[in-house]
Every structure is written in C-alpha cells, then in structure tokens.
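Human:
I keep going back and forth on a fold encoding question. Comparing notes only helps if you start from a blank page. Show me how you would write down a chain together with its backbone fold. Write it directly below this note and I will take it from there.

Assistant:
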Amino acid sequence: MSIREEYRLNSKRLVGLNPITYGQQKCVGNFSVDVPRPYWLLHYVVSGKGTFNTGGASYTVSPSQIFVVRPHQKHSYIANENNPWHYIWVAFESDIALPHILSTDVFTAPAAGKIFSDILSAAKIEFGKEEYISGKVWELMSLLIQLESGMAEIQSPYVNAAKEYISENYMRGIKVTDIAKSLNLDRSYFSTVFKKQTGMSPQQYLCEYRLERAAELLSRGEDSVTEAAYHSGYGDIVNFSRMFKKHFGTAPSKYRDMILMHEGEI
C-alpha cells in the first residue's frame, strides 16, 4: 500500500514565497497522479524511480532528481512498477521571479536532498512552521541559482528572450512570426532553435502558455470563461474551449469548478 504523509499549512500569505503544503509519498508500483494545481509543486526523488509526463515529453526520474510541476500545468507522474519511487514534495505560491532552472522539467540536484529533508521535519515544529518552510524554500531557490550557473549554456539566449517576449505579450494575439521578428531572426531558423532547445515548437509553447494563464484566471473564480479566453489572447471562444479541453481534458467551466472545489477542501 502507498504510504502518504501530507501537511497542509495555514494560509498566511507570506510575501515572496508562500508555502501551501508539503509531505512525502512512498509509492506502490504504478501509483499515479494527474491533478493540476494552481501553485508550484517540486518533488525530490529519494529512492526508486518513476515517469513524469508534461508538455508532450516523458522523463524517467531517478534518485537525487527534482521534477517540476508548474501552476496549472497539465501533467502526470507514475511510479515504476518494479522499483516505485519515494519522493518528498513542497508546494508554494510565488510573487517573485524564480530561478530559470525551474523552466526545466527535470534536473539533478543532490544537494537539495538535505533541504527537502529539513522541510519534512517541520512537522515537529509547533510555532513558526510556515515561516520556517518559507525560509527553506528560499534556501532551495539560492541553491538552484547556484546550480543553474553551471547550466548557462544549456539554453540559447534566443529561447530565453522568446519566452520573455511571450510572457509580456501573450494576451495581444501575437504569432510565431512576431516573436521571431522581435529577435531579428528568420521564422524558420527561430522555430528550429526553439524546438531543439525546448522539445516543442514555438506555436505549441505559446498555446500552452496561454492556456495555463487562462487556467490561472479561472481558478481565481473572478473571470468568466469568455473573459479568461480574451485576457489570455484568444478572440474565438469556441476555439479556446476546444483547445482548453484538449490540453486539460475538461471544459474550462468544469476546470474552474474542480479547482475551486479542491481549494475549498484545503
């Protein structure tokens, strides 16, 4: 039987990095998860292995590796049948710019094991638990910044610039041609570089980025489906609903209800 320990925190809305929940899971073979979350969720694999699926890519994840679930990101992960994994996780909200390495789906970080272990030990803390865990997440961010300094050549500066352009303009109805033009690159060459570095085409990345921003708006319960579509760069509500259901497996309105219901249980 899968052994799960989960600790939910009081919502203090700490500035910068606000922890939501943490815990560990010692899985049985083929145990799987595929529920999207409205916050960041980092898993550190202690032992065993499993498979992480996201963004059209599939990764085999082993001990000392971290796999990253971003807010509203469609994903699934499943424990290996014969050697199921044991992982520790921490979930948090962020209103700051996070290390670029968190745009990588899976990476190796043995030094992070101690931090995740410390986070798990917070269950014994009676007072100041949220602040303690927030401090540990800050410590983890510092470690990741140090780690990514050794990975600076992994991603082309064009890719980082393209992602920044998308984050600033996705709601304006931009196209891949506009992104390439902003970088003074040929569209075909830009698309080739982007896909080589990220594993997906610029069009796919732009589409998923917009859908995840729309999901974020819907999860707040403030925007209608039409408003969420418009604010995330979709002028055609029918096309938006079709793309949203294809990406998340459910209609936008049902997704909003599911997230709000889940958050109400925390």
About this structure: The domain at 3-151 is CATH 2.60.120.280 (Jelly Rolls). Strands lie at 3-8, 17-26, 32-33, 40-47, 50-54, 57-61, 65-69, 75-79, 86-94, 106-108. The chain has a mean pLDDT of 87.
